[in-house]
Design brief:
39% strand; SH3 type barrels; mainly beta; 3 domains; 4 helices; endopeptidase fold (from Nostoc punctiforme); globular; PG_Endopeptidase_C40; 23 strands; 15% helix
Length: 249
Amino acid sequence: MSDTPVIAAPIADLCRAPDGPRDRQLLMGEGVTVLRIQDGWAEVTAARDGYHGYLRESALTTGAPTHRISARATHLYPKPDFKTPERLSLSHGARLTVLSTGARFAETPQGHVPLAHLSPLESVEADPVSVAELYLGTPYLWGGNSTFGVDCSGLVQAGCLACAIPCPGDSGPQEGALGTPLPEDAPLQRGDLLFWKGHVAWVADAETLLHANAHHMAVAYEPITYAIARIDAQGDGPVTARKRLKGKP
């Protein structure tokens, strides 16, 4: 596999314009198509979903990742020894090129990572909600895409992509692209999605949501009936769609 443009930093903000507001984030090793570079800014589209934006040119390198971080987070060490000071921290979903493996660590160009925190890129998770549950307690961050800060659509995308389900980056396009509509009287089940204008949540079970939200300022569980009433009362309106991912019974 030939080297392609990828993210060099642990997390890179994908901005609406050079020096503009953050729309989303990209993680180390994620691929991009570079459209142009000017004045230290790169105009790119993200390989994972086609999201368009601008990031610092210094956040780019080239590489051919082979593995992803499948744990909530991990550390990179200068040596295969967890007692050495770590070089940096990486979120779930970051991608790395494994050069060699030892008994407990994998060597990468950036340093050594615990083998227990890695999965091959081609590996596929079975349950997107289980992936999203890795983010429990993560602080809410508008436009966030990591276990250091995430928003509602970032949490949904993390679960979907780990399960090889194509997923846009924002909740509006997610409502149109993901799953099939459920009748109002259909019982909800784990893995369903509830949408509001500007918000999305996983169904963890028939009575509970899992979502990144500004009410808790974190990824949290919340009773479905309470969340629906709360969101409506705060002025954000009713549920706009109930969806079931394809392949679910």
